[in-house]
Amino acid sequence: RRVQDRRQAVANKKNREFGRRQKLMEYANRWHDAQRIREYLSALQAAIDEERVQPLDEAGFREWFEWATWYADSIDPILQAPHPDEEQERPVNTPVAELDLTARGRAVIAELEVGDSDELARLPLDRITEACGYHDMATHQEVHRILEGLGYPTAKFENRYRC
Question: pTM (2 decimals)?
Answer without folding.
Answer: 0.50
